[in-house]
Amino acid sequence: MKGDDIMIYFDQAASSFPKPAEVAEAMVKAVNETAANPGRGSHRLGRKAAQIINQTREKAAHLFGCSDPGKAIFSNNATVALNQAIKGLNWKKDDHIITTSFEHNAMRRPFNYLEENYGVHITYIDWDQDEHKMEEKVKKAINPKTKLMAMTHASNVTGTIIPLKKIIGIAKQYGVTTLVDASQTAGHLDINMKDQQIDMLAFPGHKGLLGPQGIGMLLVEGDIQLTPIHHGGTGSFSESPAQPDQWPERLESGTLNTPGIAGLLAAFEVYENNKHNNVPRETLLINKLLEGMNKIPGIHIYVPPKSENRLPISAFNINSIHSQEIAVILDSHYDIAVRGGLHCSPLAHQVLNTANQGVVRASLSYYNTEEEVEQFLQAVKEIAEVYQEF
User: Fold this and answer.
1) What fold, for 8-19+275-386?
2) d(C-alpha 359, C-alpha 158), whole Å
3) Can you give the three-state secondary structure of 31-86, one letter per residue?
4) pLDDT (tens digit, 9 = 90+) per residue, 9-46?
5) Do domains 8-19+275-386 and 21-269 have the same CATH topology?
6) Rounded CA gap, 324 and 331, in Å?
7) Which CATH architecture has domain 21-269?
8) Which of 283, 340, 342, 345 could form a disulfide with 323 if both were Cys (CB 3.0 to 4.6 A apart)?
């Protein structure tokens, strides 16, 4: 049972905690020293704010292999970035999209909007960890009307990594535009848009990158034409009633979140300096957790096999008990934060046969410790013993 008031935070896939000290320091500095509106004035503070914005674009382009920093677009979060990427394309009746059954609602709901409003057709492909089968499914699904292949890089439910490079290679053979949701993988896995032939990449700041909430990015590689989903002030081209054609202004209306962007820049720099150490530590922790979970009777785990190339996520259930009940017990009795439920990914639960029960998700970062993993395993063991007859 819980002994002190320090919470074990195993909900990193939802939002990372704690953040590097550099992130908070950069945000406070931006608030206290750069409170001006970037790109809206020629005075010193406005120029300083704009410099932070431009440095962050350049760093994002460098880290993720995007050729043009001017096409590194800021948004409120990955959901807005994905909506811009999806709805910004020129859709017409009977256009076709290929995606997976493991998509978050940040993808699925925009697709549903296109189905209802444009008559677009969607093919959802199941991923069962067989690369060859998935490649064949993609080849079979592509047709002359296929306009977009949009896929998560890894499931937010199970941590399963999609073999993007080969699948995207197939799409590019047919001239299909590609969109990757890197919400779970940015900050965990190396991503290079040019090398992996990714046309559009969306990610948030607040998950694996350990940055602040309220900031995300859409990176666009090559000549992809997008219609803005927001229209308004851009700080330049003000004489025109139409949204400007020039990037990034075309897709960024209104005042940017300079403190959030400053925090994201600090997170990028921390990630760049530590990325070769972070993943091995996360892998050690999640493999230790999975090894311990496999020894507890009554636990069903919905994750890929033990691997050196997986995300630090474990999805599980205890017998037939609802996942949210287990999450509440871990919180209230053990001071352990996890997430139960459907995780905004209902199709994934249809594949896992957990639509009624949901799953408990424990997700880690390199700030977690082996001692926390051991405490978590002891808590789960105790709960499983209590519920062994259910």
Assistant:
1) Aspartate Aminotransferase, domain 1 (3.90.1150)
2) 9
3) HHHCCCCCCCCCCHHHHHHHHHHHHHHHHHHHHHCCCCHHHEEEECCHHHHHHHHH
4) 999 999 999 999 999 999 999 999 987 888 766 788 88
5) no
6) 10
7) 3-Layer(aba) Sandwich (3.40)
8) 340
